[in-house]
Each structure stands twice: as structure tokens, then as C-alpha cells.
Design a protein that fits this description.
713 residues, alpha+beta, 26 helices, 19 strands
Amino acid sequence: MTDTKSTHRWRFFRVGGFDQVRLDTAEDLVNLGQLDPKLWVALSCPVKGAEFDARTLALLDTDHDGSIRVPEVVAATEWAGRMLRDRAPLAKADGVLPLAAIDDSHDEGRQLLASARHVLASLGKSDAAAITMTDTADVAKIYAQMRFNGDGIVPADLAADAGDAAAITAIIDTLGSDADRSGKPGVDEARINRFFDEAAALIAWNDKGMADAAVRALGDDTVAAANAFRAVRAKVDDFFTRARLAAFDAKAAPLLNPADGAYSAISAATLAAGREEIAALPLAQVLPDAPLPLAAGINPAWQDAIALLRDKVVTPIVGGRDALTRPEWMQICTTFDAHEAWVGTKPASAVEKLDIDALRTHTATGRRERLLALVAEDKAAAPAADGIAAVEKLARYCRDLMPFCNNFVAFREFYTGRKAMFQAGSLYLDGRSCDLSVKVLDAGKHAMLATLSGVCLVYCDCVRTGGEKMSIAAAFTDGDAQQLMVGRNGVFWDREGRDWNATITKIVEHPISIREAFWTPYRKLGRFIGEQMHKFAGSKTDAMDKQLAAGVEAKATAVTAPPPATPAPAAAPAPFDIAKFAGIFAAIGLALGALGTALAAIVTGFLGLKAWQMPLVVLGVMLLVSGPSMLLAALRLHKRNLGPILDANGWAVNARARLNIPFGRSLTKLAELPAGAERSLTDPYAEKKPVWPWLLLVAALAAGGWFAWKHFM
């Protein structure tokens, strides 16, 4: 594709700091295969999370891997161009497909046209000249009206014979089902063949065993007897092994019977015969070489199973009795050896949940052939049925292909003020609405890459009534970040107009505006002065508290301590060092003099300027303070890039999609009064501004002027 020389004349527009292809006409769409992928804004986008028609995205994602890539977009545009004689509906993007626009000069087009007419006829609109998205909205209903829909899946109600329908139901119950195009559960050729093959294997296994006299040792009662034998075999073996150990060593008998602690552990509980702790105890009391009682003295958890063993197994094989010896038990085990070996060869299959008689009924002669014939007949209708799917796809492409490409090949929808498919809605918070908001699955992982965008991102958890949740990342591209903090609440409106409660969970800090950068040095200075004043006041308060505590402690000590036998002589007061204090006062005087001289020089120089020069000096000083911050912010704001924000969501953005300062203002709108609104500036609760700062300023200026006049005039 990259080596093909383009014969189509392309047009480009520049926005976002890079060139983007104009996609205005249907010819622009169908020739996208000739456009160098290096000129595409995106090379891949995820299906999940996009604010676009989900069915259209699924049709574009032909390999069903969850991402739409360049070859899939090119294939869709070329197919749509091949199906249309008149390609104008692709550019109109209204979802209306005129029948006359379909190209019936080739077989695929003729089949598509016939299918479109079939759909209209099924809706009672045989005379319609066009088919719309509304006509193809519920394709499942259209398929439900067709006896065969071409997918090779046969529901039970498709079979005319009741036995065949019952067999399909049995296959679904044992092996599962596939969804028919109409939405009904059905079976395909593979499931039919698997069912009949596995059923045949089970029937053959059963017939082989039933023909072996050794396997059927008890005739028709063999299966029931074998089940009763198998249920207790391990427990009976355990009893006779314990009895033999007790005969081997008499000291072992007490240890092989339950200890007293076993009963004390369960004595406080509400007991039932089937409790696991009771079932774990031996079948009966263990004595040296004792027989197994079949009536009295049996563990309550096993009484029913032993009674069934006595009636179904012991009596038919060794005769009626109340106790079973070990040799008799070994005879019983030998009787079932052949049966157990046969059971061990049973084929593993999901169809074994059906009994042999049911399997024989469902696999009656000719039934497999009839079911496979239904599948073949259904597949034979594939061209007509596929044509209906093609009609739906083409109608959707006539509505969605142009908008999709203007969200993928170019970001025209985004840069022209319309909502792009990656924009989830708008976040309202801190007197602003942020239109560049994207859904995220994991804020931490998203932020690791998205921070490279240079955009201030605020991550929010959004919740709706009913417990529905999602997470978003909103870009703040105008205003300032003073009031943005984790825990603040806002409201998020999604593309469907639904409102969500939004709470800030994470902030990725970056410059937001030049205005914010201008005030940043002054805010930092204000914070610094406030912090220093707070520290100073805090230190003075701590010192005062310590001094007060020390005084109280000293007073308490003086009251409680016994008087000294001989009063200690009072310490002589330190002599007044006038030289020391003179030095301190001199240093203070020099400092004040230096400050006064500097202030006088500044005031004198400022007053010596002409009136028109004074504002320029003030402006220059402000620029000197704020200029570096503004310059750095401007450089960073011009480099803001949309790419990392989308790449963190699974996109492959192929361009430096910048969010410069003017475009950033359009993405984050500040609160403004409506045009023509009346505004009263009288605030009855406004704080009165103190006068003393202005008095201090006037006094300082007066003192500086007097000092300058006294010394320099």
C-alpha cells in the first residue's frame, strides 16, 4: 500500500500543528488505500470504550481482536465503493441506501440488491426505492422469518419430524449449542456428528457388557447390585483390614477403634447420621478377626448403605445372614471383578447423562442423515442470508463510514469543534466544563503514559444511581489549578446526556494557562511569607508556653520545697555593659539607614520619571518577576500533545496532535455571564478592606521623600 502511487488528488488542511487529509467526498473514502499510512492520524483504535455505534465498529473489526487497523478500514471503504454504482450516499452519511445506487453489474452486487428487496418485502415496503438503517435495525427478526438463514446452525423447531426435534434438543442438553442468526439455540454439523459418534460408542460398550455372562453375574439385577457394592467397598475393606490388624496385635484394637476424644469433639453439636465426622468413624466396633455385622452395631452414617448391600449383594451371592465374614466378602469382590473391569472401559462422554434407551431412540436409523441434510439445506441458503447481512453492513457504512474516517484517518471531528469518538462527555468542576474527557480502565496505568502529553489531567471516579461506575480522565486546558485537589466533587455528563457524580482521585500536574503562570510567582511569594509568619508566630507561641510552664513549675517547686537552713547569698547582678548595647543600637541604625537609603533612591528615581514612564517601569518590574514563569509555561503549553492520552487507552496515534493555547481554551470553557445579563456589584457580606496598609504605604513614601529631600536636595 505504501509503494502504490496515488492517482487520486488529495486535499489537506492544517490544524493542531500538522497536516490532515480532507475527507469530503465518497471518492476520498474509496481511495484511502492509495493514501500513505504515514499521513493517517491514527493507525489503530480500540473497539471498546469508543463513543461510536458498537455494531458498526464490530463490522469494521473483521478479525475480532478488539482493535481496528488501517487494512480493515481500507477493506471496508473499498468494499463499499465496489457495492455502489452511485457512491454519493457514503458522503451524505445519513444511512439511506437508494436501491438504484447498488451496483448490480456483478454477482455480489446482484445478490445484495435482491436481499435488500427481500428485506423491504418482509417489512411490507415492496415499493420502497431505498432501504434505511431503520429497516435493517433488527436483522434477527428478518432471519427469524426465514426457514433457512445460511449459518449452518439448526434450531429444534426447524425439524419437521418430532423425533428429529427431540434429538436436537438432546444434543443441546448434552453438548451445548450455538446461537442461530435468529438468536435461537441450535446445533451445527460438528455437534451432530459428535453426538451420534459418542452415542454409538456408549451403545456398543453397553451391548458388549450385557452380552458377557461374567459381567452380568446377577442377571438384570447386576447393575443395581454393582452400584450398592461400589458404594461401600472402600469402607468394608477398611473394616476387615482393621480387624486383621487387631488379630495381629491385641494392643492395636483400642487404637483402631474411635478414641474418646473423637466423641467428645462432636458431643456438643446437634448430631445427624450423615455428619462427616460420624461417617469417618469405622463401620462397626473393631475386634480381632470379627465379622462385619449387617444389622445391629453398624455406624449410623452407613446403616442404609449396608442394608442395601445385604439385600442386593450379600443375600443373592452368599445367602441371607446377619454378619459377613472376610472370606465371604472376598467372594463377593471376585463376583464383581468382571463387571468392574467392564465399567472401567466405559467411554468418557457428555452424552452419558442420557440412558441407553434414550440414546437408542435419539440415534434411530436415518436420523443423523436427516439432521445433516437440514444443516446442508441451511448452508445452501447462505448467499441469500449473507446478502441480508451485507445490506445491513452497507446501510451502516452509508451512515457511519465517513464520520468514522474523520475520527481515524483525520481528527477532523475533534479539531472542528464536534465531539470525537474518543470524547466520553464533559466534566463540570471548579466553574469549568472540560470537553476533552476520555474513559479509562486503570487511572494509574493510564497516567504513566498520559503524563507525557504535557496536559493537566484530572482523574475522576464516576458513579450513577444504581451503582453503575466508570473512571474518566479530564483535561484542564484553561484557567488555573488552585482549587483542583483530590476529593473534590463535580458532575460528569456523558454523550447520552446522563449525569454522573464525579470525584477527583488523581491529578497529573502540568501548566494550564499563561494567566496562571503570570500569578504563580506572586502566589509563591504570598505562600512563603504566610509560611514564615506562621513559623514565627508558632515559635513565639512555643517559647511563651515553655516560659510559662517553667515559671509555674518553679513556683510549685518553691512552695513544696523545705526552706534552706542557711539562705544562700543572692547572686550579684551583672554590670550594665553600655558598650555592648551601643554596638547593637549602632548596627540597627546602620541597617535602617541602608534600607532608608535604598528606599529613598528607588522613590527618588521613580518620582524623577515622567508621568508616561511610570506605568512602563511598573510593567517592566512585573514582567521581570513573571516573565520567566510565563515564558516557560508558554513553551510547555505549545507542546501539549493529545497522542499520549489516547495511546494510553490503546490507540496508535500517528501524528503530533497538539493542543495549543487557543485550541485549549475551546476544550475547557470558563464560567461566563450570559449576554445581556444584569449584574449588581453590591455585596452586603463583602469583607471591608482595612485602611492601615494604605496608611503604612503613604507613610513609607512620605518618609522616603523627606529623606531624599533632606540629603540629596
